[in-house]
Amino acid sequence: MSRTKTPTWRRLDNAAKIFPPTSNKHDTKVFRFACTLKEEIVPEILQNALDKTMEAFPLYASIIRKGLFWYYFETSSIKPTVKEECKSPCSTLYNENSKSLLFEVSYYKKRINLEIYHALTDGVGALQFLRTLVFHYLLMQHEELKEAKLSLDYDASHAEKEMDGFKKYFSPGKSAKNPSLGKAYRIKGERLEGDVLKVINGVASVKAILQEAHQYETTLTVYLGAILIMSIYKEMARKDRKHPVVVSVPVNLRPYFKSSSARNFFSVVHVPYYFKEKEPEFEEVISYLKEFFEKELTTEKFQLRLNRLVALEHNYFTRAIPLILKKPTLWFAHHLTNNEVTTSFSNIGKITMPKELEPYIDVFDVYTSTTKVQVCLCSYGDKLSISFTSPFVNSEVQKHFFRTLTSRGIKVEISTNIITE
Questions:
Q1: 361-368 and 30-37 as β-strands: parallel, antiparallel, unpaired?
Q2: What is the mean pLDDT of the chain?
Q3: Which among 61, 150, 184, 193 would be 20 to 30 A from 230, CA to CA?
Q4: Element (H, E) at 106
């Protein structure tokens, strides 16, 4: 059977269109997935594993070009090259004045890093790429694993991986948008020099946190989301409490719609919490989040939001505006939305690998560039990785968050890329 020829160009999906005109050195729109093994990385084998992985993800061999009306992906002959880590996390990948791939693979001691530009894919798509990369690396590194005839639980075809979920599930007609929340509380402070991100990572037991969450009859996500809101509240001046703390929560749409896409396919839900005169009880915040998620995280609600976003893209007037005029409009819309958000909280969920590979893998991590304070979670086995990224020198919110966990008897192993007093 002959392989379908790889297209020379592709449209950006609906979610991807906002990233090229709004990326800059302060907010690169780059996120990182990392997998730490229990042995030192061998660069040559990692390069061979990357070459093998690229065969299954041809879209990742793309660069972004500017058209008259929109940006688009163009297939490139550039070969991705594994490098030892030498840059700050989530550094710039996309530059509209140069031709370069939209992802990088690097290593540091026992850790494999995948950094990727958000226009190419979302967290779930990037995770499938990294899982495939680690899978091939370990099979190439250990002869005994080759004989086990292992396989990943991600066997989507090229067509399924490159499917634009927004386009496929768009339904003209009824639509809805997130209600305008007005100005949200904003975390402020002195910024680190040189557009550097501070990463503070905590690793804790999934079982221990679930035990605490179950005492409140809630999920891990709601439990930790409530701790985040309370941690922010502790840093708010009294005059600022008139503004809500708005948590932006990216939601993977694949479980709501049948999709195995390795491209962007997500929605964003803004969760506002309004404070009263007195300090809220922890149970009140949990109850609010539970009720909010039960109401908003439904296929029907996501369908309405998807319809609205894609309808804007299909609007004749919007399509007819040249890209040079679209760019400032998109940037301004992004700026307004940004002012309606305090923080972002993203839970990638449970990461799995074939059981035979478990003795070789320690932990997975994920975090992203931001102009605010952002939290990303993922778990592997019993290790939950909680990563905060921030451009600020101050890290009081992060301290409140992790101290809340430790005060409840949960052991947390903390690491950071920047050491300050």
A1: antiparallel
A2: 92
A3: 193
A4: strand 103-108
Pairing of β 83-84 and β 103-108: parallel
Amino acid at 50: L
Q: Which domains does the chain have, with CATH numbers?
A: 9-169 (3.30.559.10), 198-416 (3.30.559.30)
pLDDT digits (tens, 9 = 90+) for 122-175: 999 999 999 999 999 999 999 889 777 788 888 788 888 989 999 999 988 787
End-to-end CA distance of the chain: 62
- The Cα 216–Cα 210 span in angstroms is 10
Taking each helix axis as running N to C, give the angle between helix 220-233 and helix 396-407, from 0 to 180 degrees, rounded to the nearest 10. Answer: 130
* DSSP character string of 298-348: SHHHHHHHHHHHHHHHH-HHHHHS-HHHHHHHHHHHHHHHHTT-SEEEEEE
Minimal CA–CA distance to 219: which of 159, 149, 291, 163? 291
CB atoms within 10 A of CB 251: 19
Sheet holding 266-273, edge to edge: 266-273, 245-252, 343-351, 373-380, 383-390, 198-205, 412-416
What is d(CA 106, CA 79) in angstroms, rounded to the nearest whole number?
A: 14
